[in-house]
Every structure is written in structure tokens, then in C-alpha cells.
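Appendix B. Chain record.
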Amino acid sequence: MTTPRQSPSFLSTILLDRRALLVAMGGVAIAEMASAMPTNFVSHTLSTARHRTHYLESGPADGPLMIFLHGWPEIGLVWRAQMSAFAAQGWRCVAPDLRGFGDSSIPAASDAYTNEQVVADMVELHDHLGGKPAIWVGHDWGSVIVGALIAHQPQRSRGAVLVSVPYFPDANALPTLVPLVDRAIYPADQYPDGQWDYYRYYTTHFASAVADLDADKSSSLASIFRRGDPASVGKPSPNAMVTRKGGRFGATHRAPPTKADAALWPAADFGALVRAFEAHGFRGPCSWYLNDDANIAFARRAPNGGRISQPLLFVNGELDAINTINGNRYGEPMRAACPNLTVTNLSGAHWLPLECKQELVQAISDWLAASRLTRS
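C-alpha cells predicted for this chain:
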């Protein structure tokens, strides 16, 4: 069943035909006005026998479907700017909280967080929304799920956008990632797992990693969501040093007191994010890192070797010390498996939906137009 309810950050209705106005003004105007023009977000919960998915919806119910999947450690509200803009263009925009996050189910077992399970959640949600082929947009782990979903069930997609994390047909997993590490930046004798040391730490010190993040949830989140620094390009990431420090925050085992960057998260949305993590903690979200073997096995069951033929946009953060595909080999598997690939670079780090709100709207709008995907 579906239970509609008002989002905690619900905003007053604007008595203005935003769709007609913004479409007439063009893509640049849409991007510039996205954050200035509030959009109604309606909150729903889809409950099935196997899972509960909370999701936000905006835009006309009869519009073409665009589904936004967040990453770690986010909730659906991370997409506020992009949903506002595309709802104004006439898209039906939906942003779920993925399992382990927000108001969706928080399973206890770590093996409940495999890509296969999350894809099944999204299949249920897509069927509930009518099942018409959608534009799927993912960030971070959300990109991983988008790639896995359309590789296994291409009929559910008209095209897809992956933000920050590229597609790996053999799964986003340590056995896939570590061989691609740029050893000019991360010599193997000093950084055996390169920038993926933080990922390895989850697999070797899970309870400690979660406890450190849970010690001060607000400061943990505020310290994670920071803007990119051009001076960091080409230098080892702090994420490559988690094991040697004894944890993300070192000997203190808690984040230093940190205020959220208001340029990234609107205050009300960051408050909602913190409340979600205060309620459920980091255990569920961090469990996503514990299922490499299952995720690789699932990826290898995709038809055609995981090849994706639909139009695919990858939005690369030029300042992303972990995931950028510039100057390294990380983009090679995606380029080989995705013949209809477009790559766009934005001058930001990892948190592009927040750091480059307007630029991301523009990049997706341009790609939709170029790919002739603006209509259902």
C-alpha cells in the first residue's frame, strides 16, 4: 500500500505555472531558478511483503518519469535542486530513501544490503509507479544501483545518468577497483588499496567504523559533506589513510565538532538528514560495503556481460579525489561496456548534486535534449 504524507521540509504552494515559464526561458534559466522556486514534495511510503520504501515525489503525475537514487550517506532530499528543476519542466520526479537510509526499511543483517536486494526494491517501486521506462539518475552508491538495474532489466530505462561513480560491469567492489588504482599517486608499498583503504576498513573493522561515525552523527555528516579543493588534485586522499590512522577520525574515534556547509545542504534538509541518522545510525548505510562477493556474482549474471546500450551520461567531478575518471583508468570498464556514453565534467568534488546544483541540472538537461529523451 502507499501512504501519502507531507514531507518535513514541505514548502508552500507557489501559484505560478513554473513549467510553462521555465521551459519558455530555456535550460540556463531553469538551472538558475531551481533553488529559488520551491517545489511541493509529497512524501509516500510503499510497503510490500519484503520491504518498505519511503519516497518523495514532485511534478505532474502524468509527466515522463525520472527516478533519483541517492548514495552514502544521503537521503532522497539530496536531490531537492534537481527535482525542483525537472518537476518545473514537467517531469514526474521521484526520489526514494534506499534501504538502510531515511524512512525506508533498516534490515539487521549485513547481507540484506546487496545490490541485488536494492535493485529488487527499485523494481517494486518502479512497478508501483506504473512501470513505464524511466530516466534513472544515481549518485555514488545510487549510481551503482542504477547501473545494475538497467544492466539486468534494460526495459525499465530510456536512459540513465550516473553522477560521481562510473559504471563497472563487474560490480563496484574492491576486486574491481583496486587493480585500477593510479600507482603514481598511490604507490603499492604505501597504499596497497589506494584511495579505497576506507572501503577496506569497513570489511576489517566494521563495528569500530560504525561506532566512530555514530559518536557524533551531526559532525560526522557535516565533516563528510565538504566542497572540493583544487589543491588536492593529484595528491593522496585522506581516505587512503584510514587504516593507518586507526579509523576515519583517528585516535579520537569521533568527528571533530563541525558545522554543515550551508552552500551544500539547505539547513532544513541537513536537519532532516541528521534526524534520520540520529534515529537509525550508520550501521545500515555502511553495510552496503560488506557484500563484494555477492555483488560481483550478481553483476556476472547480467545479460550481454553487463553491456548497457541505452543512452548513458556520466557526470564526472574534476576535483573528486576518490572517483574522478580523469587521468586514470577508472573510466575504462564503463567506456568498454557502454557504447552510447556521454561524459561531462563539472568543477566540483564528489557531492555534485549539492556542490554543483545548477550545473548538474544543466548537464542533464543538455544530455536529455541531445539524446532526444525529453518526451515520454
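Further analysis of this model is presented in Appendix C.
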